Amino acid sequence: MTSSSNSNDPSSYPLGFAQHDHAACVSDALGAAEAHCVSDGLRFTPVRRKVLEILLQEHRALGAYTILDLLRESGFGSQPPVAYRALDFLVANGLAHKIERMNAFIACVHPSQSHTPAFMICRLCEAVAETQSSPAKGALGDAARATGFRIERTVVEAEGVCPACIDKADT
Amino acid sequence: MTSSSNSNDPSSYPLGFAQHDHAACVSDALGAAEAHCVSDGLRFTPVRRKVLEILLQEHRALGAYTILDLLRESGFGSQPPVAYRALDFLVANGLAHKIERMNAFIACVHPSQSHTPAFMICRLCEAVAETQSSPAKGALGDAARATGFRIERTVVEAEGVCPACIDKADT
DNA sequence: GGTCTCCGTGTGATTTTATAACATTTCACG
DNA sequence: CGTGAAATGTTATAAAATCACACGGAGACC
Asked: In sequence order, which residues have a C-beta less than 8 Å from that of residue A123 and are 6 or more positions away?
């Protein structure tokens, strides 16, 4: 329960490795998710809500089985499909993302906007920050156009060292 | 063994979805890999060579267990670590890449150059083409600089429909 | 040539991640 | 209410990856 109210001007950060008011962050995001589901005719059921809440609360990438353990503690079903189905729903509707390199999931930080997420993954502390990218605008897009490949989705994940770990880093 | 010699001007393709002389492609690549290992003091052992040959021969992304089956047929060890260790070696030395979205591996198409690979993955036929990208030059790089994140590696994988499948595609 | 060590390999077992299949419940809608 | 589609709970299994340990061959060193 670290409160740390001295947030270091979070608005100056693109997203991610910044301090912020976490309780508000979680409840705002849950509210936004609910509103989004209502307006799109989606069912924001208790399991789905709980999984999103877990992801928001932890504020990092969690494996499906970690989520499953937390679900169990809250009295939900404890078999893998329970977690995977909720995660599938959240990912399909842009409320969460899968980090392919980690086989883990993380809450989306700006679910309402349609976006092409990109992630920065710290190899030391495993923190994950979401940001935007437009891979289709660069060399990848050129290659796709040249070959006739139609891009529908992109996975962009950068592995490296986050600002908090940069001093611990060897190099 | 479909031959289809009417290749659609392959030289105009950046890389990947093009026709080509496959036998030469494989042997050239194996030779280049061997030369690379010799010059770097790496041991290009029979298992490692065979795994790379398999990847080059198939010319698509293969799961570790598929590779393992093919290794077994060639008289190599048949337990998972045999395949994973060889793949780890090939990936670590830039001779192959892992496609994170598929949990599969593919031979590198231009191993000698240091590069930032990007992949185009057809969701219909599962063909994978390797190309170049420079994600750190765009929005992702800006975000990394702004937050102080040091990028060491990037995973860029575009999912979509390849030129050969574009007519089968629904949309 | 001996022999020591490192690295790679072979193997059995286990862990982690994900899905299949099917019964039961919930909910929107008529 | 009744009905059908969607969501959930549960058992079982598949797929992907790693651990741990024994064996053996290639070089380093004497």
From this structure: A159, A160, A161, B152
Q: How far is CA B165 from CA A56, A136, A148, B10, B157, in A?
A: 39, 20, 10, 17, 18
Q: Are A135 and A152 contacting, i.e. CB atoms less than 8 angstroms apart?
A: no
Q: Which chain A residue lies closest to B122 (C-alpha atoms)? A: A149
Reduce the DSSP state of residue B156 to 3 states and report it. Answer: strand
pTM of the model: 0.88
Query: How close does chain B come to A70, measured CA to CA in Å?
Result: 26
Count of CB atoms within 10 A of residue A11's CB? 7
* pLDDT tens digit sequence for A86-118: 999 999 999 999 999 999 999 998 887 777 999
Return the structure tokens found at A49.
């809500």
The answer to whether A107 touches A55, Cβ cutoff 8 Å, is yes
- Distance of alpha carbon B152 from alpha carbon A160, whole angstroms: 5
Compute the nearest-CA separation of B166 from chain A (Å): 8
Q: Mind listing the pLDDT tens digit for each residue in B123-157?
A: 999 999 999 888 888 899 999 999 999 999 999 99
Are A102 and A115 in contact by the 8 Å Cβ rule? The answer is no
